[in-house]
Amino acid sequence: MSRTTTVLAALLAATALTATTASAAPTQDRPTPEAKAAGITEPGDARMGWKERSQQPTARSSATVAAPAGVPGIDVSNWQGSVDWTAQWNAGKRFAYVKATEGTGYTSPSFAQQYNGSYNVGMVRGSYHFALPNTSSGATQANYFVDHGGGWSADGKTLPGVLDVEWNPYGSTCYGLTQSGMRTWINSFLNQYKARTGRYPVIYTNTNWWNECVGHDTSFAAKSPLWIARYSSSAGTMPTGWGAYSFWQYTDSPIDQNVWNGSLDRLRYFAKN
């Protein structure tokens, strides 16, 4: 083969590779139209309950949804930026969950102010990870979460981390996974998180999403407490396996509002144990 022919073949191969790479470029982090309408315009914008607004359009505002019984708290992400934690404390909030990570390529730039600020005013606080099950393994994302703010300590003021697994803002509802594949992914995350921290994480999800994408396996309830997402006057039916919720996100007005299903003493005990 002549040198000219060899060079030409290499150029053609490179062109073919570039074309293949371009055509195979992942759609991940390209928000769906529905996600864009909810304000998710770039990677990292996903937040707890982003779709609940459209799921429960008639029961969103705190004016129509009375605060349920339990200890009040909030969850925040980079959407809120710098939070006035003294004001939240004075409004009666006693716990906070803060978004730390998404997938393995995003850490919230507001995390330090939110995580440390809530702690400094006296709240029991923890962090959460927005799962992207189609981008890397559950264990890989659990490690990323723990390495970027998702750890736990038995100081009585640090809650175990949360696996936020819900509607996909970047593509197909179940992230292209079968129910079996999703169960494997979640177990991988749970087991690695426990190996790193000594605790299983809380699972945040929506019943409709869970039953569609995960199915009716009851084993998860034996490991992880449930944080149910439902913007309504009742928490509704729990996902298969759980008889009750530990946390409930019930509205996003004027900020994501939650309750712990118990007393403040029990919340502190849960944080420590």
Automatic annotation (TrEMBL):
Highest taxon, organism lineage: Bacteria
Database matches in CDD domains: GH25_CH-type
Record GO terms (molecular function): lysozyme activity
Keywords assigned by UniProt, alphabetized: Antimicrobial, Bacteriolytic enzyme, Disulfide bond, Glycosidase, Hydrolase, Secreted, Signal
Localization annotation: Secreted
UniProt signal peptide: 1-24
Catalytic activity of the protein: Hydrolysis of (1->4)-beta-linkages between N-acetylmuramic acid and N-acetyl-D-glucosamine residues in a peptidoglycan and between N-acetyl-D-glucosamine residues in chitodextrins
Function noted in UniProt: This enzyme has both lysozyme (acetylmuramidase) and diacetylmuramidase activities.
Family, per entry: Belongs to the glycosyl hydrolase 25 family.
Protein name stated in the entry: lysozyme
Organism, as annotated: Janibacter indicus
